[in-house]
Amino acid sequence: MSSDLPPRITVAQALALPAVQRGLPLVVAGERNLDRPIRWVHAGEVSYIASVLLGGELLLTTGMGIGRRAADQRRFVQELDEAGAAALFVELGGALDDLPPALVREAERRGLPLVAFRRDVRFIPVTEAIHTELVNGRYAVLQRCDEIHGQLTQVVLDGGGIPEVLRVLAQTFATPVVLEGVGGRVLAHAVPGGDEEQGAETLDAWATRGRGSGGRAGRRGRRGARGDDGGASPWQAGLSAPVPLGHGTPGRLVLLPVSAPLDELARLVLDRAAGLVALSLLRSRQEEELVARERGSFLLALASGRLRAAAARRQAALIGFAPASGLLLPLAAETAAEVEPAEWSVVLRDAQVELEGRGTPALVGQRERAGQLLALVALPGARGGAGGSGATGARGGGGAGDAAA
Q: Would you give the DSSP letter of residue 247?
């Protein structure tokens, strides 16, 4: 599954429109930035036009406000560039017979696309043509957002839970997804195609990203989907949406732009997906179940030997397990009869609380179905160095492993 959406209309795409071509446009500067997106079209003839721009505008003008002196012409381009204008289109034959050299040089130096209309052109048809493309593109985004939201809703209606919703999100945008709880704890995650190795890498990178829930990077990522945040890593430049967890402090649903920047579609879908996740949590107390399954996934990865020692320590801390140095006892159990997932998650939670209440650090989780228990229990007073790793002990189901492993 893919988002399959074209980008917003760019300067180059605008140049190809019939209404623009009627003016015989010629790119005279800033050709390297013709891929800039256009947010809106504005026409104006005053020297201070840049002060009313918000960024991303294509400015249409006959040149009356550009000025006669070279210094004024350079300042005109400078102010447009600093205002974030996408491009400057100038109609020749009225106020200007040709573009002033100072204007052209400054536009080229700054990379501002500068286009000359060599034939009279009506600005209204040009504006209408570009705005039509913008509106059509916006409609396509909203339509695709509705389609994906429908797919996510159907997953829930078919009995799927939060892990299934996250898997659809990861597959749709070909990027990892993390549901983060209070204090940066990972409640659930998913990667495209269910790749276990990539999942382990995702959690390891998440553990070392250097910030917790609601940190500065998270707020910055919420505003933009570009992923170019001054060289920030994907873990800092992702999109996030708040998810109420039922105890005051919200969690976050995060999309991580590992392979490509995330776009407006991803932001819209993420907001809707966060609502579905919140409803699922309220409906079936899935927070406890998610915690149990995430811990179980970690214990399975540890038992299979897929995790290195340093990565295992970081991921264990992410899901709330950081025992002092010593030996760990791996345990596995399964009920003889079937049990409801919501009931089993409460059992696992109570087992965790009981052990910790006795001063025994423990990590209790489940496998894919309810009724299966996996655990690592820190042995009080035991010291490390007895040989064997935590992964080896867990696979055997009986030996004790070194906590440092």
A: S
What is the tens place of the pLDDT at every residue in 370-387?
A: 677 777 788 776 554 333
The b-or-e profile of 97-129 (16+ CB within 10 A means b, else e) is eebbebbbebbbebebbbbbbeeebebeebbeb
Q: Where in the chain is the domain with CATH 3.30.70?
A: 316-402
The string of pLDDT tens digits covering residues 364-373 is 877 666 677 7
Decide: pTM greater than 0.90: no
**Residues across the chain:** 405
CATH architecture for the domain at 316-402: 2-Layer Sandwich (3.30)
Burial of 262 (0-12, 13-18, 19+ CB in 10 A): buried
Give me the phi and psi of 240, to 5 degrees please: -140, 155
Architecture of domain 159-284: 2-Layer Sandwich (3.30)
Q: Is-contact 390 376, C-beta < 8 A?
A: yes
CATH superfamily of the 11-132 domain: HprK N-terminal domain-like (3.40.1390.20)
Give 298's DSSP letter: H
Q: Please, how many CA atoms are within 13 Å of residue 307, restricted to the half-sphere of its CB?
A: 30
